[in-house]
Amino acid sequence: MSFNQKQFNSNLQQVREQLSLQVKLPTIPLDIFETLPSTNQTLWELLSQGATIPRVVIATQQTAGRGQWGRQWQSSIGGLYLSVALAPHLQASNSAHLTLCSAWGIARALRSYSIPVLLKWPNDLVLLGLKLGGILTETRVQQGHINKAVIGVGLNWSNVVPESGINLKSFCQQQSNPQVTSLEMLAAIVLQGLLSGYQYWLEFGIESLLPSYLELLDSLGREVIVDGKPGIITGVTPTGELQVTFNYPTASSELCLKPGTISLGYKGVGKQ
After folding, report:
1. Which residues of the chain have pLDDT under 50?
2. Could you tell me the fold of the domain covering 5-215?
3. Distance of alpha carbon 138 from alpha carbon 130, whole angstroms
4. Peptide bond into 230 cis (omega under 30)
5. Residue 2's pLDDT is what?
6. CB-based contacts of 87: which residues, under 8 Å, 6+ apart?
């Protein structure tokens, strides 16, 4: 499956108009590959060889894709695998900002194309309760600050998906007037969405972005069990922790959970 760069460039302008982007996003050098071990890994290698930031790498297949916590990411042909290199100059303790603003920006962009995407904490994109895609943010820290970041996005287009996943092409084909019709258009939407989310965060900060992020959080108000106790998901902190509130007969308490300490699972398939 080949990726048509000319079509992608045309789609970028169409997406910009669809999203009514007021801020002109930068034109970013782009490298397109049919097959790679990992778009994140390749982008880090390009940076080590002197590539400038920002930069984008896209592949139609990965042989060694990575997910959160070192898990292997299934990256069969037909999916979108895209990584963006940025230089945020952000305190290392606030690294979650990059995932939050990227996921939010991509979800909003897809929703503008009548795709009702929601966000699953901490880094997934969800459609109809199933996993549409995920984000992996990797950083380089110097003197307590992130000076380089690579944000990787894997999103299901026409590739085979597991039980917990959903493929966007199939979803669009069931719509009477599908607006996303190709991998190239999807790549343009994802890239413009990611960059617009990042730009919004740069201008207005995480505190301004969070309320809108929470409107798209699929688990808000959901009951979860933590250490054997039932609680309700009430939000996400500016540092990316999940807020869970426990109500007792005489008082209530709140716990902030770091990513990796609880799994929220997917619709109809149990915990993942």
Report:
1. 69, 268-272
2. BirA Bifunctional Protein; domain 2 (3.30.930)
3. 25
4. no
5. 85
6. 53, 54, 147, 148, 149
